[in-house]
Amino acid sequence: MAARETEQAAGDPREARELLVHLVFGHMAARTVRAAVEFGVVDIIGTDGEVTAREIAERCGTLPQPTHRLLRALAGLGLLTETRPGSFTVTPAGALLSEKDEDSFGAFVRMFLDPAMLRAWDQLDESVRTGQTAFDSVFGIDFFSYLDRHPDLSARFNSAMSQGTRAITAALPSRYDFARFTTVIDIGGGDGTLLSAVLKGTPGLRGVVYDTAGGLAQARTTFEREGVADRATTAVGDFFTAAPPGGDLYLIKSVLHDWSDEQCAGILSHIREAIPDEGRLLIVEPVLPATAEAQGAGVPYLSDLNMLVNVGGRERTREDFTELCRTAGFAVSSFTPIGPDGGYCAIEAVPAPGGIPGDQTL
Question: Is the distance from CB of 162 to CB of 191 less than 8 angstroms?
Fold first, then answer.
């Protein structure tokens, strides 16, 4: 629900009730979308086709009546259209679930609605009460170690991160001057999607993705597909222990929100040790407004809670990033909004004189 609708609902009892019911039924809607992806409904129908519920049931190996009910729910959510009783077409929003399309959000849906992601949410109240990461107590292991032990889920996570930030990846090269640099090192860059976009938009620039072996598993394939394999390499390592030397730009996207302030200070301090005095740090992250706003269906704040229950990190405000950088020996020089919704920012920081402050406790 849009911010304006939310504001109107606050003064209208009927609309206020509708808002609350909409929110309570949200988990049902999410699971309905997941079922559509698991059954491949959109690819069965085709983005320009029309198929009956009975035909879909035959393809999926499901019963006709429950299948029709699932398809009606998807139509009610705006992902399908029931053109005549029992026949369905795909809407533009539904087309994003086609796993044949390069703009697909299929892996994103599968990852964020995976049972491993959802179980920790059942313990949200405990995380709020104690500040502890629910995932760790539910599974007896932290989220990223869990991914290491489940390669299929790790690959899905990498794909989901790639799908979920394509708009940011596409926008960043035009919003930041990468041509000033010779070598960019992408810290925690996973499958190389972001680095590939930067290199494609900046001829002559070379780059390195620095990540764990699991995180880098699809990087070489990405480089070759995007035509940058001659200018992109990988380096296996742990950003909690070191950052590789050799870059004049250190790029770190959607990493810091996964970790606590203390852990982030350590990550950035390692970059500060490796970066030349004339180098630059570029952080690409969601930035929360100073005071909460009813925007984007609450997604920025739901993401913040997801960080709390699943990984132990947090989303941050401008003030938070400024202080985090100061603690690690950087001075923030600019915040540049990027992407279609303005929630993400490119945060540029320069090495502060004197290196890393002695006290790194936030």
Answer: yes
